[in-house]
Specification:
Blueprint (H helix, E strand, L loop, with lengths): L1 H25 L39 E4 L5 E4 L4 E8 L3 E8 L5 E4 L13 E7 L2 E12 L7 E10 L5 E7 L5 E3 L5 E4 L5 E4 L6 E4 L18 E6 L2 E5 L4 E3 L19 E6 L2 E7 L10 E8 L5 E8 L12 E2 L5 E4 L2 E4 L4 E4 L9 E6 L4 E6 L4 H5 L4 E6 L4 E4 L9 E3 L2 E7 L5 E7 L3
Antiparallel strand pairs: 1-31, 2-3, 3-4, 4-5, 6-7, 7-8, 8-9, 10-11, 11-12, 12-13, 14-15, 15-16, 17-18, 18-19, 19-20, 21-22, 22-23, 23-24, 25-26, 26-27, 27-28, 29-30, 30-31
């Protein structure tokens, strides 16, 4: 009888331990659920110091910070909250959006795993601001079909509230590779020409706009040539032609041309937040009209020119223009070899006397320090370690050479520079180093 009681007690103890293990597996931190098939993600708190110490500009401390292993090539950031979003790849070609507090390195909310229509490639990722609300948006283009019927192609967007991760999915039927812009209060999907679809990130409402609804300015034949939708602004849709550009139902570039420019020559080259960078021909009476162009940053709400700078006209028109990048506060803007101090009303073109330029700027901070590389083709190559790394001080437009193997911050927020690199296992790593000051 005593042996039977002992056996029952042992069995009961085993069952109790099994129940505890089951509860531990099913409960716990919601951030840890469903991670069994995830790419390893490693977080290092600021007090512990990062696993990897890169060579970086002296403005950042490498003895502390945080590190994430297995990030997507693209990230998105909300400067208002200091939250950064990245995608992790799971088994079965599924993906999940995760967030991290850049100031502390603590992991935040995470989305549910999903399989995009183009599962072999990471979905794209960006931030969109609508009024006082911000969203992280991922999108992918692909098709569905069972192989027996014609497949339909569509753009699949997942829109997440930055604060709590609340998600809504929007699927837009689409034919051909899409251009997606998230600079304005609405997400704009276009065909790279005059047709576009607008997606409201707050409600998920989808509305289509055809070429005949763009409200072309009167007396502008060039507006109807090579027409392209660039994105949405607070004032309306930003559209441009072979020359000249306008906001649908709003301002017209000819009426807001910067001083010294040919009013009918404006061309949009890039949009960043509430700023648009445009290229203008100089006025016919200008001394350098044959050799130089005028680059101007405009306010997207009014079209008002904010800062202009002259640069040599390139011998060969580039296949694409450099993407403009704003500092977190919006006081500084860079694009290729151009730098603008918007708060101070100054600009600078980094080029040699013969007009040659070897500088590609990639990121800029609120204190007016930009990072880039000489002899790099573009910002992407500079951030990948190509060229000769440099730091540019907006106070006096001086360029300082950094260590030859220095990595450059892809962005800075909450006083933390975020660096990206690829290890020997082809995993993308994100490292956050705090500023030294």
């Amino acid at each position: 009888m005593r042996q039977k009681a002992v056996r029952l007690a042992l069995v009961g103890g085993v069952v109790f331990l099994a129940l505890l293990l089951l509860l531990a597996t099913c409960g716990g931190n919601p951030e840890s659920q469903g991670n069994k098939d995830a790419v390893p993600v490693k977080r290092v708190m600021p007090s512990a110091g990062p696993v990897t110490r890169l060579t970086v500009p002296p403005q950042y401390a490498t003895d502390r910070g945080w590190e994430i292993i297995g990030s997507s090539p693209e990230v998105a950031v909300s400067h208002a909250t200091g939250r950064l979003a990245y995608l992790e790849r799971l088994n079965g070609n599924r993906y999940r959006l995760r967030t991290v507090d850049t100031a502390t390195g603590r992991l935040g909310w995470q989305g549910q795993a999903w399989r995009p229509p183009d599962p072999l490639h990471y979905p794209r990722l960006a931030t969109v601001t609508a009024g006082d609300r911000q969203y992280f948006v991922t999108w992918s283009y692909g098709k569905v079909g069972d192989g027996l019927t014609p497949a339909s192609t569509f753009v699949s967007l997942d829109v997440y509230d930055v604060t709590d991760g609340a998600r809504q999915r929007v699927e837009v039927p689409w034919s051909g590779a899409p251009d997606v812009d998230t600079n304005g209060p609405e997400i704009v999907i276009s065909d790279g020409k005059a047709n576009s679809t607008l997606v409201d990130p707050v409600t998920g409402t989808v509305s289509e706009l055809s070429a005949d609804e763009l409200k072309y300015p009167k007396g502008c034949p060039a507006c109807k040539q090579l027409t392209e939708v660039y994105g949405q602004t607070a004032a309306g849709l930003l559209v441009g032609g072979a020359r000249e550009f306008w906001v649908r139902g709003g301002w017209f570039s000819r009426n807001v041309a910067p001083r010294g420019a040919d009013p009918g020559s404006g061309v949009v080259t890039s949009v960043a937040g509430e700023r648009v960078l445009a290229k203008w021909a100089l006025g016919k009476k200008a001394k350098r009209v044959a050799t130089h162009e005028l680059w101007t940053v405009h306010d997207t709400l009014t079209g008002k020119p904010l800062v202009s700078v002259e640069c040599h006209r390139p011998a060969i028109k580039p296949g694409r223009y450099p993407q403009a990048v704003l500092s977190p506060s919006g006081d500084h803007l860079i694009a290729g070899n151009l730098a603008f101090d918007l708060a101070g009303g100054r600009g600078h073109c980094f080029e040699e006397e013969d007009g040659s330029s070897h500088l590609a700027l990639a990121s800029v901070t609120d204190d007016g320090i930009a990072y880039g590389a000489e002899n790099a083709r573009d910002a992407s190559e500079a951030l990948s370690g190509g060229g000769l790394p440099v730091a540019v001080d907006f106070a006096n437009w001086t360029t300082e050479r950094l260590s030859r193997n220095a990595r450059l911050p892809g962005l800075e927020t909450t006083g933390v520079g975020v660096f990206r690199w690829t290890d020997r296992q082809e995993r993308t790593r994100l490292i956050g180093y705090p500023r030294t000051d």
